[in-house]
Design brief:
This protein has helices spanning 12-22, 30-39, 43-54, 57-62, 64-80. The chain is an all-alpha fold.
Amino acid sequence: MDEDTGEQGLGRREWDILALERRGFSGPGAKERAIREELDLAPVRYYQLLNALLDDARALAHDPVTVNRLRRVRERRRSER
């Protein structure tokens, strides 16, 4: 198995994004700071990758609770527009 690819075929970055989404953040800016410091990504790029990951069956298989929760949030926001 490639060290950058875990079970289900997800790469390390995808695993890290899902792991970050499982965490709680204490105050304003804390999540964005974690995105920059831990993943070395701009928040805009992070959210682009996250959105694509929510439509990936491998992500759903890896972490169904997180992916389904985020899908519900995304759909609720879309319906509010």
